[in-house]
Specification:
234 residues; alpha/beta; Rossmann fold; Methionyl-tRNA Fmet Formyltransferase, Chain A, domain 2; 2 domains; three-stranded antiparallel β-sheet; 7 helices; elongated
């Protein structure tokens, strides 16, 4: 590890509990001085000017980052597609809905154009399991990428190839569609099974049924279900 990495300040930003857990268990042990930001309200230009980080790393951060911050500090995000394929929102859900079983996490420099910045490098990611399991796995992979970035200080290169943009999902998109395939139904439920995301649901006779902890085995689907009255929905 270079002497410069030991003397640098770094910031990690993440909205989900698994981001904080990986930061506490792994990232903060890397060389240098590390700080964690967990809400958009904390991510201020004033704080960043006070800390003066070499890099700001964004883990699973769906909020818009102010342009003046991106211009002042080298900001890195970890997008769950092989960009320029899959720029845009809800990458995990869009990938699974398209039948992908694996993807690549791209470490890219953040710019004013969403997910269009130059690329540092990419790593493979398996898409098996629930959404939360995949997000935890992705954060762990991203932690290893962070170590490589502070160690090697790679220069990002422009993206190349055809742009395929993903559309961010809305809460109403979590309603389970008609399908005759158990595999498709299983994939639909598991891709939405994470804290902070609208679970897969159906509405029937005044009640809403939300599904999670899903498993596909022996030709059947097993899942937990939460039932609420429709008038109790926000």
């Amino acid at each position: 590890m270079s002497e410069s990495a030991n003397n640098q300040v770094y910031v990690v930003a993440g909205r989900q509990p698994w981001n904080r857990r990986v930061f506490d268990e792994t990232i903060r042990r890397y060389p240098g001085e590390w700080h964690f930001v967990g809400t958009p309200e904390e991510m201020t230009l004033e704080l960043m000017h006070r800390l003066r980080p070499r890099y700001i790393f964004f883990l699973h951060w769906s909020n818009i980052v102010p342009q003046e911050l991106l211009e002042a500090f080298e900001s890195v995000c970890f997008h769950m597609t092989d960009v320029p394929f899959g720029r845009g929102g809800s990458p995990l859900q869009n990938l699974i809905a398209r039948g992908h079983r694996s993807t690549r996490i791209t470490a890219l420099r953040m710019t004013s154009e969403l997910d269009a910045g130059p690329v540092y490098f990419k790593e493979d990611l398996c898409l098996a399991g629930s959404a939360e399991e995949i997000y935890i796995r992705a954060t762990q992979v991203s932690a290893g990428m962070i170590l490589r970035i502070i160690r090697d200080n790679p220069q990002p290169t422009p993206q190349s190839g055809a742009v395929v943009a993903f559309k961010r999902r809305k809460p109403s998109d979590s309603e389970i569609p008609e399908t005759t395939s158990l595999q498709e139904l299983y994939d639909f439920v598991r891709m939405l099974d994470a804290d902070g995301y609208p679970r897969a649901f159906i509405s029937h006779r005044g009640y809403r049924y939300e599904f999670g902890r899903v498993a596909l085995k022996d030709g059947r689907i097993v899942a937990d279900v939460t039932i609420t009255r429709l008038e109790e929905q926000p």
